[in-house]
Model the fold of this input.
Amino acid sequence: MRIGEAVKLRILELCENRGITVNRLSTLCGITQSTLSNITGGRNQSTTISTLKKICDGLEISILEFFDSPLFKDLEQ
Done:
């Protein structure tokens, strides 16, 4: 799996666990709906760390917690 796919799946997983939509997350983290939709729709494969930090802030988790998932094991180069 490539990192862009892992990031997408992790965001969707965290939203589902919290019972929120991607649109709600965009409001919580201050990222435009289109940007977040591009990430979770797989159209953006190179999310920046600053964008991930905003997503983590909206989810009230640390970046370490975000990457603490089996999705990020054995990623392709």
About this structure: The chain has a mean pLDDT of 94.
